[in-house]
Amino acid sequence: MSTHLRIALGLAAAGVPPLPLRAGKMPFGNCRACADGACGGRPNMRNAGPCRCPAPCHAWAAATTDPRTLTSPAWVSAWRQAVAVAYHPGGAGVTVVDLDTAAALTWARTTLPSTRIVRTTRGEHWLYQGVMQSANAVRPGVDIKSSMQYARWLGPGTGTMTALPDVARALTVKEPTAVRPAVVTVPARAGGGKCPHRMPAYLDRGIAMAEQRITEARGAVHATVYRTFLAVLSTHGRCGCLTEVHTARLFTAAQAKGESARHCTDAWTNARTTLGL
User: Fold this and answer.
1) Which of 10, 214, 262, 273 is most deeply buried (CB count within 10 A of its CB)?
2) DSSP 3-state assignment of 175?
3) What count of Cα atoms within 13 Å lies in the side-chain half-sphere of residue 75?
């Protein structure tokens, strides 16, 4: 049994869902069943979506406390190749405040209540009991890792874990940013009101591409989310194709990038208004 698998089984027994990491602190790549986002997730992304395939290929969604899964042939092979062990904080009921700079540490020591601390290569992880929305760069040098995110396992840390404070929760609350509506021409509904797309695969592919666009945004996330919603609605908003499942997938991708639920709703509403839907 590899050292990484032994650590993973110990975490699982304690209720902490682990997953293997390859070089670069990234999860293992997609299995064939998930190629090109066919399952609704995105390959090799830190915030990939849920997946039911048996391989450890979808980051936080692949993390599990089931020892039978962790010791299955596919996972054993991954553990042998792994360079590190990660875990899903949200799945363990905790939030990690990831502090990567000296300034971030100074801010935390003067702002956040004391709790369990884990040393990292660049700073510290402050662990709190409670789950919240994950988000990157909530402050300079500060990331929040909890739901739909993973963190590297660097040991249990020191100190007593305390309840997640409101000051930490407030870090991910963002006011919606005004976005200039784009000028979009929407064709009239084809086929006397019938869906012009006919094939569900066309819509599924469009939603997967929209998720990818949001997930891969490196800046201007607010604007990217709005433009992506606008593009989806301009293509599928008039024919009745879209369901709550599709909308939830887009909102999940946006919130994984740090957008609030309120901003997602506002961006969706603004896009519908722009298109006259």
Assistant:
1) 214
2) coil
3) 25
User: What is the amino acid identity at position 140?
Assistant: P
**Token reading at 111:** 């702002």
Question: Side chain identity at 79, as an amino acid letter?
Answer: W
Segment 218-251, tens digit of pLDDT: 767 778 888 888 888 887 777 777 778 888 888 8
Return the number of other C-beta atoms located less than 10 Å from residue 128's C-beta: 23
Q: Which two three-digit tokens encode residue 57?
A: 């290929």
- Cβ(87)–Cβ(151) below 8 Å: yes
- Amino acid code (one letter) for 215: T
Mean pLDDT of 258-263: 79
Closest CA to 264 of 221, 206, 207, 204: 221
Q: Which helix (H) or strand (E) segment is 153 a member of?
A: none
Measuring CA to CA, which residue among 54, 4, 57, 71 is closest to residue 26? 57
pLDDT per residue as tens digits for the range 131-186: 998 888 899 999 999 988 899 999 999 999 999 999 999 888 755 444 444 333 34
Distance CA 96, CA 117 (A): 9
Strand partners, 27: 21
SS (H, E, C) 225-263: HHHHHHHHHHHHCCCCCCCHHHHHHHHHHHHHCCCCHHH
Tokens of 245: 């499942």
* Helix 73-81 × helix 3-13 angle, to 10°: 120
- Please state, in angstroms and rounded to a whole number, the distance separating the CA atoms of residues 8 and 82: 11
